[in-house]
Amino acid sequence: MVWERLKRWVRPREPALEAGHRENPERASLESWDRHSHGLEEFSRSLAEEEGLRILDCGEVLQANVSFLTSYGHKLYSEAFLSVLDSVRGMTAPEPSELTEDQIQRFLDATLNFPDGHLGAVLLWDTLTFLPGALAEPVVERLAQVMRPGACLLALFHADLRKEPAPLYSYRIVAADTLHVTPKGWRKPAQVFNNRAIEKLFRRFHSVKFFLARDHLREVIVRR
Asked: Phi, psi (5° rounding) for residue 124?
């Protein structure tokens, strides 16, 4: 597969680091790690079930992820949600800050401008944690429109997260059931999600499946 399969080559800006946390010894000691991912394992199985799917990756563009996803013969789109959010909101705005209706529409047009039923799979990662409250629901509503019935979505959530700077991660696919997680900085979470809130958010979808994990990341597989 070739890079032309990407809808847009996104080179995200470095994540905004919160003042006073860059030098925190405890936080600075965070290291990258490999984690077994039951969610990715189920997501990967869904990729093998059909040919010619259109997949949306909502994180940064990573060569390993592109190679893995296109190796199934699928078409890949990439939209770095948090970089688009920073662009729409403006880097001088307080973080997190609520968006105007015009800003919400600009975000949706920039990231999810697809025909109805166009996408067969979505890697949402942990982006919902950092989207302002007024934006998360419109994003999920638009996903419900642009994903076809039966399409699979993988999302991650920070467990036991309070509204303080949270680690911002890069997720690299190592194998069909393994992610390499790399801390990239710190960002204030906009929302804290428990299981009930996640189920409510994806209420228009057919099913929501939770996976237990030994670390502080929760995985969710959502079926349209």
From this structure: -90, -20
